[in-house]
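Exercise 7.
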Amino acid sequence: MRKAAALLLLVGVTALGSNMAEARVDVGIGIGIPVPAVVAPPPVYYEPAPVVVQPPPVVAAPAYYYDDWQGRAWRERQWRERRWREHEWRERRREWRRWHDNYDD
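Solution. The predicted structure, written as tokens, is:
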């Protein structure tokens, strides 16, 4: 058993121990051919191009325009007269009541 332990210790020291410097000559031959470049593959998803929608052209057909300014003026005049008549009626009634019913303001 002692021999086995000693042998195991010797193998461990030689395996795990550092190597001594070795004096040797290495000869290498190099050929100046570059290694092909590895390029990343293109992305699987491309963002879609923005959608450009042109607005429809504006086409205005000539049309007849009738401004009823005379009708509007007539309606406004009638409205003002009606308001004036209502006001006059109230004022005249007040005057009449003042004279006939002893109405005091």
